[in-house]
Amino acid sequence: xxxxxxxxxxxxxxxxxxxxGQIGRTPDxxxxxxxxxxxxxxxxxxxxxxxxxxxxxxxxxxxxxxPDPGKALAMLKDGLLSAAWTVLPLALTMMAxxxxxxxxxxxxxxxxxxxxxxxxxxxxxxxxxxxxxxxALWEATKxxxxxxxLGAVLWMTMKDIVPQLMSAGRLPLTALLGIVTDAALxxxxxxxxxxxxxxAADYFVVRRRTQKQLRMTKEEVKQENKNAEGDPLIxxxxxxxxxxxxxxxxxxxxxxxDVIVVNPVHVAVALRYEPEKGAPRVVxxxxxPLAAKIRxxxxxxxxxxxQDVALARALNSGCEVGQEIPAEFFAAxxxxxxxxxxxxxxxxxxxxxxxxxxxxxxx
Length: 363
Known about the structure:
Elements: H1 11-19, H2 27-65, H3 69-104, H4 124-132, H5 134-166, H6 173-214, H7 218-229, H8 232-253, E1 259-262, E2 267-272, E3 281-287, H9 289-300, E4 305-307, H10 309-318, H11 330-346, E5 352-354
Parallel strand pairs: 1-4, 4-5
Antiparallel strand pairs: 1-2, 2-3
Helix pairs in contact: 2-3, 2-6, 5-6
């Protein structure tokens, strides 16, 4: 059926979906990577926190002995700054991990269209469909699996630490704290690794679901391609304007030409020769009305015109405006330029002249 969405989304459709915030991503990926990064940063953060706490505690007796409000406020300020500088690396690391995770799942883009009010969002039916559809089933399965995996990780971690805690009476307090800290970090890291694996699976499911939602019908693809290519009438108008601009540029270069080779009525080719720039160059050419306009401008600007039927036809069909003439035309054009130079030496170059050595028919 033509209404079935069987086609992959086009680049334009994907771009529009990103602008509207419709990107296949899961927030769990950034959260679990952040937890893993935090488990790496926590030992150093806690060590720094303990050092600052010891420094603060050492200052307490001095403050009590001399209860000056100014000193007390200064100590509080130092404590707050120390706490901020201690936590800052951890916070920056987690923020960087979150941004990197978002970027890896389709880029970072502020979807401004999501802030626009849409009354169809007040319709409860789409929400009920999500609650009772495949999406809800996947979310429920994911929640159960997540609970089971985290429970298994917790059990495996605790079964190793419980025997040590049972004999904690024989251990000093520092050793006990070390055991508890190591166990907590191991638990966090194991949970983070398991969470990342689950988040990766969730990402592929969400991305596949999003791609399915963005699929298009054959008619939608045709319409989008038509829009991308543009309306034929508008394209024709653009081409007409471009051709008009090209003709105007040609006409502006006619007064700078050294000679106009004509046929004598139907074809006109304007040539300019600058030895330091290479071979003679075609600055304008045309047939019919365009040729008449070139001859008119040549007359107004006293540019010599030389009648050479075969050469005019060959130059018009074998050369493009703005390009140097091909090597096969060098000899014929050189004869025309030499003839024009002889006319200029006599002071009678302007106007239409017949080439005394016309070019033979060229193929």
